[in-house]
Structures are given as structure tokens and as C-alpha cells.
Amino acid sequence: MSNRIQIKVTGKNINRFIMRLIQSKIEILELENISNHEINILINREDYQKIKKIKSIYELKVLKYKGLIAFKRSIRVNRLLIFVTLCSILFLFLLSNVIFSVKVIHADKNIRNLILEELSEYGVKVHKFKKSATKIDEIKNKILDKYKDQIEWLEIENYGTSYIVRVEERLIPNKEETILPRDVVAKKNAVILKIESTSGVTQRLVGNYVKAGDIIVSGTVKLNEEIKKQVAASATVYGEVWYTVKVEYPYIYKEEYYTGNVKKGLFYSFLNKNISIFGKSYTNSKLVNKIRLSSTFLPIFLSVGEQQEILITDNIFTEEEALQIATKRSHKGISSKLNDNEYILDEKVLKVEYKDSKILLEIFYSVCEDITDYRNIEDNSNELP
Amino acid sequence: MKLMQELRNYVLEEEFKIIYKSGKLYATNYIGIPIFESNEIHIKYSAGKIIVNGKNLTISKLSKDEVLITGGINKLEFRLDNE
To answer: Same structural domain for residues A50 and A147?
Structure first.
């Protein structure tokens, strides 16, 4: 690529200047006659110095560089921009190749920590460079080999600057536990309502009162006061258990709950009100901000995020209503702790106290509850003197 | 000998040639341009010179052995040295 320069020559009797070029044997690659006083000529770069020497009264002005020189000149002029661009590309490349998060998806914390430690040993950790797919496969196989008894399957996936590790624990079926001889005992003080026994000797009957720890079904099989055999007693015992619950409930009750309606977009907040810039806003809402811009002078915030609708209910109850609701809530609370076979037998309000802003209750509950508990016979014998 | 001379000219292209087309005059293997004016240009070659007459004549391209003259060419005059 030859280097050429296009120059503008101005001066009186321009033909004289052209004559000088001819006499100096300077090549004219292109000549454009603008007027009697002005011409544009394209010359080789090396001839430019010669022209400068012979120009005398004529004025020269470089219009354009062509060829490699133009390229070099363009680089020189834009060197700062090129440098910044290259640095930016390099920085972007570096950033996109750095690990910013490593997540192990598994319920067991120990497994998660184990995998994270192993990955860390192989250099897969935050603020380190990402690994190639081959290297990741290699690491995966090494971890699987090392923990073949603990890990069934492992997958390391790369999402941008994050690694997500999916792991499946190897579950080796436990050897059948040998159940030691044991007694079925009462978990709580109760009156027995039902006994479903599959092994052992039943010591108590339905309607008997038992204290916590009393043997209900014994694992010791005796004949004429002589121990013949010791077995693992098995039974499910239901008993009547009693609770006294203290409840308080306000006369004025305000409740807020999320309706599940969510609106995404741009919002501005003013005096605890979140108003959508595009479209309608919810009357009562909570704003979950992603980006929040605030002004130092005005109490206005501009946010990009989610607006979650809230329903607010304000209730003012009479004493009777408050009593009814408190009783219901208490009943619901007890019921939620019971399983399918357990239920409330009876309930009675023992004490009601009316205060200025709330009601205080004491409620008695009689509940049919599973009171089964097990105790090894050895442990039992140890306890005995 | 004439054949050899023609072959040499063909290979080396040393012979003076002019081409006039579309109002432009293209000359190769010239020796010099002793006169250059807007109405008259003299092109010297080995056997003589060519005088180009016209208006607003100019040299659009110029190299060691080639020249392109443009402008309003009215007349071409050939003059041999021995004339």
C-alpha cells in the first residue's frame, strides 16, 4: 500500500507551479484544477518534502492522507480512544471470565460444604478465573472418584459468571437396625383412651391414669415372676391429655395480608404512597425495590421494582365478638399441632378478663393425643436401684 | 533487424505513443515538457515534439514516462527535429 498525500496548492499563476513540478520530475498522480489560483494534487508521500522546497510563494495545505500513512495517522490521532476501547474490551473479557458465584444445590449443608471445599481446591471459587469445559469435566470426575460412596451424581453448569453445581447424594440403604428389648411408656400424664399393641405385655387398661414414664406395654415376658423373654414392645397408645391456654385478643385489630398480585415497573414514592408511572397503582401496596433513586432536596423516590398489593382490614370488636374470635383462634392453634388421629375432646373457658384494649382468656382443653414413647429395658434396669 | 527492433519495443515499451480519446491526450515515453501554459503545451519526445493547443489545458497525471493532458484541446501539431 503506497503512501500518498492529497494537497491543495494556492497561489498566482498556478501553471507556473505545475511547471516546477514537471521540471523537478515530481509525479502527479491526480490533478484537479479548481481555478487559476488553486489546484488539488495527489502526490507520493516522499515527494511532499521536495514540493515544500520548491513551493516558494505558493501555499500548501494537506487535505487527505491515503494508503498506509492514512491508517497510521488515524491510529495516532485516535490512540486514546483505541487504548480505552482495547482496555475496556480486555476488562470486559476479564470480568466475564471471573467466577462471581458458586452455588451448590442440595438440601444437606454438609454435602454443600464438601462440594464447595473440593471445588475450591481445584480453583473453582469466587474471584478466580473460569475453567474450560474439559477442565470442569475433569474436576467433576475427580470429585466423583474421590467421593464415590457419598456422591451419586454431580453436574457443574456454567451460567455467565456463575457456576451452579447440582449434586445427588448416594444413599446406601441402612442395615436393618436391631431393635433392643424395650417397653412402651407414657409420654405425658394422661388417661388411656386406646391401646393398639402388636408385641409385648399390656400392663395398663383403657381408663387407667398414667404418669409420664409409666410402662403401658412391657417388653419383659414373665411366667410365675420369672423372666422368660425380653422383646421390643410395640404399641400406639392414645390418652386424654389436658392443657390450659392463656389467650389475649385486642378489641381493635388491624390485619395486612398480601393478595399475591404483583406489578412490575417504574414507580415514584411520595409520603408512603407508591405510584406507578405507567398504568394504575394498587391502593395499598409494598414496593420491593431493585433500583432506587432518591433526591436530597425532595421527599420523592424513583424506583424500579415490584409493587405487591396488600389488603388491609381494620376491625373493631365488641367484648363478645373478641371472646368468640379469641376462642376460635385458640382452638385452631391447638388443632394445628395435632395429627389426623388426634382431636380435641372438650374445651372450656375458665377465666375471662376484660381490659381497656384487649380481652384475656384462660381456656382449658382436653385432647385425645398419642402418648406413645419407648424406653429400652436396659436403660430401665439401670435406673432401678 | 527490424523484427528484433519491433520485438524489443513490444517488450520494453520504449516507443513514444500518444492516444487521443474523449478530449484527453495520453502520451507515453516522452522526454520532457518544455512549455506548459493553459493554452499551449509542448511534449518533447525522441524524434521531435508535439504542440498541444487549446483552452484551459492542464496536466491531470504526470509520471516519469506518462502524461495525461486534459482541457479543451483544439489542435495537435507534430514537429520533427530535422524539420
So the answer is: no
Residue B7 maps to a domain: no
Q: What is the pLDDT of residues A328-374, one digit of tens each?
A: 989 998 888 888 889 999 999 898 888 888 889 899 999 999 999 99
Domain match, A263 and A385 both: no
Secondary structure string (H, E, C) spanning chain A? CCCEEEEEEECCCHHHHHHHHHHCCCCECEEEEEECCEEEEEEEHHHHHHHHHHCCCCEEEEEEEECHHHHHHHHHHCHHHHHHHHHHHHHHHHHHCECCEEEEECCCHHHHHHHHHHHHHCCCCCCCECCCHHHHHHHHHHHHHHCCCCEEEEEEEEECCEEEEEEEECCCCCCCCCCCCEEEEECCCEEEEEEEEEECEECCCCCCEECCCCEEEECEEEECCEEEEECECEEEEEEEEEEEEEEEEECEEEEEEEEEEEEEEEEEEECCEEEECCCCCCCCEEEEEEEEEECCCCCEEEEEEEEEEEEEEEEECCHHHHHHHHHHHHHHHHHHCCCCCCEEEEEEEEEEEECCCEEEEEEEEEEEEECEEEEEHHHHHHHCC
Asked if B62 reaches chain A (Cβ–Cβ under 8 Å), the answer is yes
Distance (Å) from the C-alpha of residue A17 to the closest C-alpha of chain B?
10
Whether B36 contacts chain A with CB within 8 A: yes
> What's the CATH number where B53 sits?
2.60.40.2000
Is A84 within a domain? no
Report yes or no on A175 lying in a domain: no
> Is residue A178 situated within a structural domain?
no
Q: What is the pLDDT of residues A84-133, one digit of tens each?
A: 999 999 998 888 888 888 888 888 888 888 889 989 998 888 888 888 88
Q: Is residue A96 part of a domain?
A: no
Asked if A34 reaches chain B (Cβ–Cβ under 8 Å), the answer is no
For residue range A223-233, what is the model confidence (pLDDT) as tens digits?
Answer: 877 888 888 89
